[in-house]
Amino acid sequence: MEINAQLVKELRERTGAGMMDCKKALEQTNGDMDKAIEKLREMGLASARKKSIRVANEGKIVSYIHAGGKIGVMVELNCETDFVANTDEFIQLAKDIAMHIAATNPLYVDKESVPQEIIEKEKSFQKEQLLKSGKPENVLDKILDGKINKYLEDICVLDQPFVKNEMVKVKDLINNAIAKFGENIILRRFVRFKLGEE
Prior knowledge:
Elements: H1 5-15, H2 19-28, H3 33-51, E1 58-66, E2 71-79, H4 82-85, H5 88-104, H6 116-132, H7 137-155, E3 161-162, E4 165-169, H8 170-181, E5 186-194
Antiparallel strand pairs: 1-2, 2-5, 3-4
Helix pairs in contact: 1-2, 1-3, 2-3, 3-8, 6-7
Family: Belongs to the EF-Ts family.
Region (Involved in Mg(2+) ion dislocation from EF-Tu): 81-84
Subcellular location: Cytoplasm
């Protein structure tokens, strides 16, 4: 199948990946858009894994104010060089993440940063609910694992579906940027303020 420029452009718009990567992914999947998106994710993740051990001490602290000044978010997004940190695309990525946080109110950056006592408390609550519902003992652990994973996805920003495009998670946005810039990029921390909240 011939891969035309329109197909490449559409894949680039949907994923944010580079033109050559989009063309290569479409060629490898015979023009199947969904498979090409999956292929790009795999390429991005492989690339991101290699780069994740590199030090990222540069970056930006970006703020986002929403709802007529009633919600504010600050994020620290790190990268390896000030050259990348000063690009419009990097700054836009940080703003998009801050806007996402304003909209979804996550509690943690990733699953690793959730305190174990929080996880244990949620496990205990969910197990109690499952027992009350009369679920058979032999399936309880499997259901419980699923519920805990879902809970962690809900409270961790990197695992949430991105508000502007729910087909991708926030971590996918970052992995796409890693693949594009060729640098490690880390969401270091964030803080969200809501007027009148303790």
